[in-house]
Amino acid sequence: MSKAHIQALLNGDSQQVEEAHAASEKINKPRKQNSLGQRYVVAIIQNRAKEVGLAALDTTTCSTLWLAQYVEATRSFTTTLTMLELYPPDELLVVAPKDTSMPEMGLNAALAVFETTPRPRGDFDDSEGTVLVQACAMNGSFAELTSGRGSYLALGAAGALLKFMRENKSMVLAASCLHVKHALSTHHMHIDAASIEALELVQSTSSSLLNFLDGTRTRAGSQLLRANLLQPLKDIPTLNARYDALGELRSNSALLMTLEECLMQLPRNMDSVIGSLVLRPAKSEASMLRRVAAMIQSFIQLRELLVTLGASF
């Protein structure tokens, strides 16, 4: 029990007791732990037709903006909770309720197990989101995303996410740096959150399937393996190409050894090094000098990485 909670009880002020209890609950809410170093900022919005828009960005790499828009078919928001297993949020942005004195309902109630950050509904504007996403999306990436598919809620969520990065993290993404992709792909299987837990696919335990299979050399490799376990690929041509690549490595031991040696020389946080190069300070403050220094260090590490790759191949 917090000091504020105790003081409110002593004063006999029921409103203060409720406020202190709510603050205590928020502080003690667990965050989804991510052992692979990913730090996702996720924004979610729902409309009255039970459609949900979601945007997710791993701020350690800043390489891919994942967008999804779907109809939530269950009252328990199974699809949304499964999406949050795939993109475990370090920061979860939701629409702030109009009346904070009323209990949470709908989507926000389902997300009560997470520590959420309420944002004004105006931040989830899809027109502004479209402009912000277009500014940082790679050529062709945004056009492919929006063709023939409703995505206004997802774009609204993306707008709230990018605006939050600018206003609260004082960071802006560089132009044409992001792959913008559908989080719900027809080329992958979708496993619900209950099955993920029951099968122990990616839990942080020694008995999980991820722990058993993970012999990767880089953190990016571990993250890709985790994603493949949560959303197994079912696209036959891509699977055949992977089998062909594995067959080549098995038949060419010299190539396999060269590749292993190269991966062992790479920094394990290579994705973070590259990701830091696409973020720039939103404000010219003295505190931002640390960010500039980090970017210079990343450039040096990137040069060493390219030298290593050139020497190996």
Can you put this structure into words, describing what you see?
There is one protein chain. This protein has helices spanning 3-11, 14-28, 78-86, 106-110, 126-136, 141-146, 152-168, 193-198, 209-213, 219-230, 236-251, 253-265, 270-275, 289-312, and strands at 40-46, 51-58, 64-71, 89-95, 116-119, 171-173, 179-182, 279-281. With 313 residues, the protein is of the alpha/beta class. Helix 1 packs antiparallel against helix 2 and helix 5 packs across helix 7 (152-168). Residues 1-6 and 16-31 have low confidence and may be disordered. The strands form two sheets. Strands 5-4-1-2-3-7 form a six-stranded mixed beta sheet. The protein has a two-stranded antiparallel ribbon with strand order 6-8.
Outline:
Helix 5 packs across helix 7 (152-168). 49% of the residues lie in helices and 14% in strands. It contains 14 helices and eight strands.
